[in-house]
Amino acid sequence: MTKRVYKVRSVDSADWDRDPELEGTIKEFGSLAVDDKERPFMVIDTGMRKVRVFDSKALEEAFEKGEPGDHIRLEYRGKVKVQGGKTFKRFNVQVWTEEEGEGDEEEKDAPV
């Protein structure tokens, strides 16, 4: 049997207006020069495709605490206006790991 080993594989950038929900596994973190500024990103594998998500204030905690192999769910909640007339994207964010073990399936919240 022959195994396919990719040297290049396309990665889409998130389009929140078209796909407001994204769930999958964090594959990697990196940065990309955009308009002469380094922009951190993560690549999420949804099982159907890989999606590049750029860091923003609303996703800051996911970038700080998430690690490759963690599961992530992002839900785009639209834009919100703040003082000074600026608008920011708003998200519901969940990042978790799955642990093997015996007993009931129990969810544990992160310490506050």
Strand order of the largest sheet: 1-4-3-2-5-6
Number of domains: 1
Mean pLDDT: 87
CATH superfamily descriptor: RuvBL1 DNA/RNA binding domain
* CATH uppermost class: Mainly Beta
What is the fold named in CATH at topology level?
A: OB fold (Dihydrolipoamide Acetyltransferase, E2P)
How do the helices and strands follow one another from N- to C-terminus? EEEEHEE
Report, as a whole number of angstroms, the end-to-end distance: 49 Å
- The stretches of 5 or more residues where confidence is low (pLDDT under 50) are none
- Total number of helices: 1
The CATH architecture can be named as: Beta Barrel
Total DSSP E strands: 6
Structural class comes to mainly beta
Helix content estimate: under 10%
Principal-axes geometry comes out as globular
Give the structure's gist in a few sentences.
With 112 residues, the chain is mostly beta strands. 5% of the residues lie in helices and 46% in strands. The protein has one domain: OB fold (Dihydrolipoamide Acetyltransferase, E2P).
Describe this structure in words.
There is one protein chain. Strand 2 and strand 3 form a beta hairpin. The protein has 1 helix and 6 strands; from the N terminus they run E-E-E-E-H-E-E. The model has no long low-confidence stretch (mean pLDDT 87). The protein has 112 residues and is mainly β. The protein has a single domain, classed as Beta Barrel (OB fold (Dihydrolipoamide Acetyltransferase, E2P)). It has a 6-stranded mixed beta sheet. Helix content is 5%, strand content 46%.
